[in-house]
Amino acid sequence: MTALREAGVNVESVCGGHGVCKKCLVEVVSGELSEPTLAEAELEHISKSLRLACQTRVIGDAVVNVPQSSRQTRGKILEWGRIDESKLSPSIRLANVELERPSLRDQRSDSERLLHALNAEAIDYFLLKRLPSKLRDIDWKAEAVLYDCEVLDVRPQENRDVYGLAVDVGTTTVVAYLVNLKTGRIVATKSDYNGQIVHGDDVISRINYALKDYDKLVELQSRILATINKLVQEAVEGAGCSTSDVYEASFAGNTVMMSFLCGAETSAIASAPYVPPFRSSLRLKARDLGLKLNSSAVVYTLPLISGYVGGDVVADILVSGMHKRDENSLLIDLGTNGEVVLKSGNGTFAASTAAGPALEGAGLSNGMRGMEGAIESVSIDTKTYEVYYRTIGDKEPRGICGSGVVDSIACMLISGILDSKGRMVDLNIPRLVRVGEERAFVLADGEGGRKVYISQSDVRRFQLAKAAIFSACLLLLRMAGLSVRDLSRVYIAGAFGNYIDPRSAMTVGMIPELPSSKIVQIGNGSGYGAVMSLLSREAKEEAELVARTTKAIDLNAIREFQKEFIDATVFPHKRIELFPNAARAIEEKTPLVL
Amino acid sequence: MTALREAGVNVESVCGGHGVCKKCLVEVVSGELSEPTLAEAELEHISKSLRLACQTRVIGDAVVNVPQSSRQTRGKILEWGRIDESKLSPSIRLANVELERPSLRDQRSDSERLLHALNAEAIDYFLLKRLPSKLRDIDWKAEAVLYDCEVLDVRPQENRDVYGLAVDVGTTTVVAYLVNLKTGRIVATKSDYNGQIVHGDDVISRINYALKDYDKLVELQSRILATINKLVQEAVEGAGCSTSDVYEASFAGNTVMMSFLCGAETSAIASAPYVPPFRSSLRLKARDLGLKLNSSAVVYTLPLISGYVGGDVVADILVSGMHKRDENSLLIDLGTNGEVVLKSGNGTFAASTAAGPALEGAGLSNGMRGMEGAIESVSIDTKTYEVYYRTIGDKEPRGICGSGVVDSIACMLISGILDSKGRMVDLNIPRLVRVGEERAFVLADGEGGRKVYISQSDVRRFQLAKAAIFSACLLLLRMAGLSVRDLSRVYIAGAFGNYIDPRSAMTVGMIPELPSSKIVQIGNGSGYGAVMSLLSREAKEEAELVARTTKAIDLNAIREFQKEFIDATVFPHKRIELFPNAARAIEEKTPLVL
After folding, report:
1. What ipTM score was computed for the predicted complex, to two decimals?
2. A128: which chain B residues are within 8 Å (Cβ-Cβ)?
3. What range does the domain containing B414 cover?
4. Are B581 and B594 in contact (CB under 8 A)?
């Protein structure tokens, strides 16, 4: 582990090198290494070449392979969103131009002069108003900022950067990425809970609130805009630029969130036939929404698939690239609405399922967003019930975020604290306490001595979330006549989908059990898809194609859904043949290794 | 006169049938009539067939021709703006459509459904927001309101009318016409002084005010918008409709007024090379301007020709039709900025000249707009100095409007109260009084005993205005190698250009002296051109062509301008050969008859 870290390969570790968490698995290709320790005993019957980095000393030259699943995934976010600088083709482009000076012989208006010099077609109205002084202030030597064929700004030729804003508008969490459109790099990432949350955790409560009268819808719109404007402000401050340097904003989110963002009525989405106000992508002016960017900035919303399958799913698909690969694949977006996409030879199908906010750390006793002090990774010693955890920023624990919840439940299963029905077993250990009427398992002593725990009802909420997601996967597979084994790849997306440990997610039965080499964590696909659409006009075109060719499936219309959902609430599943390795790991009290 | 009135032909008359004002001239074609009276003596040497209607009794069957110049011109306004209902082709159109109801098999979004049914391309963003409830409220049976290919509204199929607003944005006066776009009829006309007038009478003062900082420009924009919003409110109340029934607004005005309306900087218009921020027509959303019409309404501005020749001139040309006739013609727009257009075989040339607000009744001792109580028509008995006048609405006189001023000055010249230099002659008559330091001629005892008069400095102001206009005419003619006699037609436009008596305008030397058959009064061409653009897409295209093919001439760049201007301040002109009949009329103390 030390050698790997010195080589710049950041390997996962929660238990601090005690051989408990099994997150530092590496594959030995060749070379001289120390003998396996007792902590590694369970690995032997899987593969001789698997070792725990924390237990293995390097004795001579050796070659080891660090699988993606053992790497600290935090960095992946940035990698995935990226496009080669050479392949950047943002809608926002810059053009240097020196205009001919007006004279008595050439009395063309300022706007004609500019359009002609740039071979552009239109000038944003807000720019038009200030164009005379802007052009004269820079003495006719302009760097023009264009959105396709519309001029948004003229600035001095100073090589100033231009920025775009990509926003994943989640029901629970909003993540904003500030992107340098010259370099293609994300220069700041800011997130917060969606300010609409005061009017309900899920989309249905908010639709009902908006139904009361149009003012309520306007209020919901103002709330999400306030959240976004705050994130923008933080992002530009972090990046040392100004909101006026931001010329485009791209939004991905579910259909209801996109409707609220635009202030469009959602009344018809909630009941059959679930009709949204719009599905196509919109191009608006940021100022029309009340977004505080450059006064001429353009807003783009990713196209939607249906009332319940939104632009976040389109973005996920875009980022995964699954639409371009000729193989059976599944995409799972873990969020308040869990979305599942199946691509097979028969087409691409998508379904949405109400998982609730538990996976985003909201609605749990000690749940919190993935911010400093959140327990994001957990491991439990199956013998001593000692808990190892890591918090974001290595701060004192303040709560648990989504990936920490999944880890906790998985470890509680492995260590026998939870049974397959999700009941906390009556063990006589100090960490099992009573909180009010119910049992709770204490993970840590947090800030100010406050205990951070998972309660029995937290587990219940989690069961509903994971059952919603897995039963959706299963139904789509069945519709296509496929089984889990037929999948070449499973993409995990979601605001916290990058941090989650897929082995924990399999242990609890949330995602299909497959070798970890087939699992690709794309992180916040919704946000990165929005980033891609900022960086490339082609990505926008692809998004249109994806939205047009993906068919939305209404799970509620499928008879078996209810039964499948109930079966999936069991850990890992009522039909353990779907999770043979997870079931064995739980039985053998040893972390799942795949 | 009685016979004519009974036949529905409203003949002009100011002196009340005393044979003084000579405004009721008719041409006898055949028939038996009474002998000419003394009042008609001067007509004989012009033509045997000319008679004054007020002096002529019909003895047997007779045929008389009433020239345009003798008709009460008030009605012409409405006639000129009109287009045959069959030829209406407004950008705003209505389409009845019944949409397929959504079902589980047809989950298209509301906007897709509507666009598909209408074969339209776009939905206004503000409509989009409310589309779901609007469509369901009308049970999918919609009357759609479209602007070209954009849907602006869906309404119940109730045959409700749709309206457009045409506005002449003058430097001094703003006139708003509410137009029923189904019938093509103007249903209300409202006017007021431009609210910007507190920051100066002329465009230069306002440009200087706007130059101070951008807030000042924003203030000027707010002021003109407040004026317009007030007029709109009055107009819809008058017509019994609502602002939400108004879907398009078309604006014509000079370049500076159009820039202020749009909030665009005017700094570069004021000095050489006089470059405006834009010249092409603009299409904006009314809400972006802050205009209180339907929330999805579209604003169209007529294209501009140059920094000093604006959309009002384009509109004038459009209304006159001079661009389509193969003859030499001159168009004179009488306003704060007098504009002159000359069309000849060598092309079309336009010039603007600062006449000041005198012709619009502003800036004179007793000047007022053409509203109730304004003296609009004047006649003076050359022997008794008795003054005959008519006020708008036949109310007690409150002041003098533009046409009344021109009549007054002409009559004061004819009756010898003014000399050719514009000096009030020292006559011992009760109507010649002193007001402060100067002489004044009293026209009437007005409301509350307040005298309505023309002062010496009013005359001076008027001289500058008429000289500005006539010298512009002369210079354009000279540029084209033409003389007054080469003109087939002279069009008189301007907010008060319909009410003016062309014979008075010739007597004072404001417009070229020509037979009145060659004079065509088109009224408020700027306003009617805007009306035409509302009623016909082709008119909008024509406007573009006119703007592109009319060349603006900068009079200040012509050497002789200053001298010509000074010569033209003389009544009727320093070179009396330009106004032989006017000069003789003045000398003979008899009204000009042509």
Report:
1. 0.86
2. 262, 264, 277-278, 282
3. 358-456
4. yes
